Amino acid sequence: MGETIYSVVRSFSKYKSIIDGLTSDDITPNRDQCANLFSGSLKEYKGLFSSDKCEKGMKFLSFLKENVHSYKIADGCQYIYHWIYTDVLSKNESTHNIFTFYNNLMEAYDEYDVDTCKNHIEHIKKIIISKLDKLMELYKYFNQISSQIESCSCAKKCATLYNDYLKICHEENDQDFCNELENFKTSYENRVISLVCDDSLPKTLPSVRGNSFIVALTSCIVILSISFISFMLYKFTYLGSMLHARIIKKKIWNYIYKEPHEILYNSNMSNISSENSLYNISYNSTEYS
Is 115 left (phi over 0), alpha (psi -120 to 50) or beta? Predict the structure, then answer.
């Protein structure tokens, strides 16, 4: 299905390993920066963002800038957006509040290291964070699938989540979310094909297009086929000639029937008109005599 605004979720695992691997020695140099941030423009968020998490986030952004040839800054900026939602705000804030918090944090961070994520703000704004989180959960189990039989439970979890999210796709008609599910379907089927599990593990997943696409396509084909066959029968067969002759015959009879009736109707109307004229003359003569 190609790239979507949610495609970045496929690479989130490597960014998660980076931020999870940061030690206290790595984040200590950012302590003063965080203190300054939350005593200034981000003062209202101080209760939401612990010093430890702030320092981790600052170090992660610096890491992205220092390793621009190995990692995509755009992907890293989208990961930190999801990280704020799950690890900082514990999924308790609305999408608007999360984006506002993220945007304010990036603007404050730019005072120390300009433009790390600033160019990607508009793209991130389009992301529905709750759906990004659902896809993140899907890929979390997917990345645990290997060729070993222990992976069967993870694969089953993927199939269950996929079917749950498929309902959301159909209900809310989010094209990017639906397309990313279709991308996942392809990846899943390629990976589980070699798994040896019991029959309860589906080796294929339903398409986001569902049966409605097949029904619509079938209906179009049937309608076109009927139209084509009808045209061919009418144009090139005895049945078509017979129908054509009957239509011509009916038109002739209609004309024959219609013509005398119109003549009779016009004649009657003329007689009525003449009688009315005579009556008017007689009436006028009587009135003035």
Answer: left
Q: Amino acid identity, residue 49?
A: F
Is position 121 within any domain? yes
> Which pair of structure tokens corresponds to residue 153?
């439970």
Same domain, 185 and 236: no
- Check: CB of residue 44 under 8 Å from CB of residue 115: no
Three-state SS for 47?
coil
Is position 167 within any domain?
yes
Query: Do 34 and 105 touch, CB atoms closer than 8 A?
Result: no
67 and 25 housed in the same domain: yes
**Final residue in a domain of this structure, among 70, 105, 127:** 127
Could you say which of 171, 191, 208 is where a domain stops? 208
Helix (H) or strand (E) holding 188: helix 175-192
Q: How many domains does the chain have?
A: 3
| DSSP structure class, residue 7 | G
- pLDDT tens-digit map of 164-210: 999 999 999 899 999 999 999 999 999 999 888 889 999 999 999 86
CA distance 1 to 133: 20
CA-to-CA distance for 216 and 285, rounded, in angstroms? 79
Q: Under a CB-based contact definition with an 8 Å cutoff, are residues 102 and 86 in contact?
A: no
Q: 28 or 283: which carries more pLDDT confidence?
A: 28
pLDDT tens digits for 13-41? 999 999 998 877 776 666 777 777 777 76
Domain limits for position 263: 213-289
Q: What is the DSSP letter of 238?
A: H
- Which among 169, 186, 168 is positioned nearest to 178, based on CA atoms? 169
Question: Is 1 contained in some domain?
Answer: no
Category of 90 on φ-ψ map: left (φ > 0), alpha (ψ -120 to 50) or beta? left
